[in-house]
Amino acid sequence: MNALEHQLDYPYADTLPEPGRVFDVAPGVKWLRMPLPFALDHINLWLLRDEIDGQPGWTVVDCGIASDTIKAHWEQVFDTALEGLPVLRVLVTHCHPDHIGLAHWICTGGNKQRWNVRLWATLGEYTSARVMASGAGSNAGGESAARHFGLHGLVDAQSQDKLRNRGGYYANLVPALPTQFRRLREADVVTIGSHAWRVVTGYGHSPEHCALWCEQAGVLLSGDMVLPRISTNVSVFEMEPEANPLGLYLESLGRYETMAEDTLVLPAHGKPFRGVRTRVAQLRAHHDARLAEVMEACTAKPRSAADIVPLMFRRELDIHQMTFAMGEALAHLHLLWLAGKLRRSTGADGVIRFSA
């Protein structure tokens, strides 16, 4: 545990539920942990005890990527952990594949088609998922992503080829989506079982991220907006090439600073913890430090996003990690550029660079 983690309280210590099993973290809230085939090797999913129109059952929050392994784990959960009750709805925090990949499959009852229920999501997340699943720009790969990152200095032939060959990345992990959904908006109150959960939207990590906060129970399902060990990825991708996602993310963090410090935070990655305001302060300090590094580097000489990556990420990166590293480097450059602290220009080589 690093120094920052020591400032947080982990009420369940090193407890981690095995894939296909659940762990009770709060009254009516069960924790699932599913594997991911990435450097970030897991995702936390949640089951909330529910009742809709007199029918008792469960709300699923987030789903995992589409894979036979995760489907098998879910089938075990369906058979052993639901107390003989059905899933009544599926709610996703946002459009990234590890959160929405199996939404259609779970909505239609898994392999045995046990039920047919509604997907709940914000409009920004649902429509973004539909666009990316259609192949009209996945942010993570394909010709447009290669062109976008090439403009910002990722020009070596090997990286460009790998990016072009990732055109089906999103659709492979999200092969189907429900054709209908129920819309969630900021400050909506969703009654799940005996508790009222408030929708807390956030921006920067994804188009319209939905966290769920039950003030009465003192529980926050934070999705990817507030994570205990790592900082949330905030990236500029090709669909919005002049975006300021870091500015949006830092603004969104303010919504968590009014929550009680002893709120039990149930994040999408990492372990449940208490200390939400402490963690938000840590995240702000982290980005302040990165912005200072970027500003210093661009004061010394003009820098592209590719030049900034090794300053921010001091380890070897595969192409999956590199897309997020490039996007995040660009997010820090854009915040400074759009604030008037940096200017950008395109060199004779066609690469965009930023200078003080």
TrEMBL record:
Xref: InterPro entries: B_lactamase-like_C, Metallo-B-lactamas, RibonucZ/Hydroxyglut_hydro, Sec-metab_biosynth-thioest, WH-like_DNA-bd_sf
Coiled-coil parts of chain: none
Domain spans labelled Metallo-beta-lactamase: 42-269
Pfam families, sorted: B_lactamase-like_C, Lactamase_B
Protein's name in the database: MBL fold metallo-hydrolase
Record organism: Paraburkholderia denitrificans
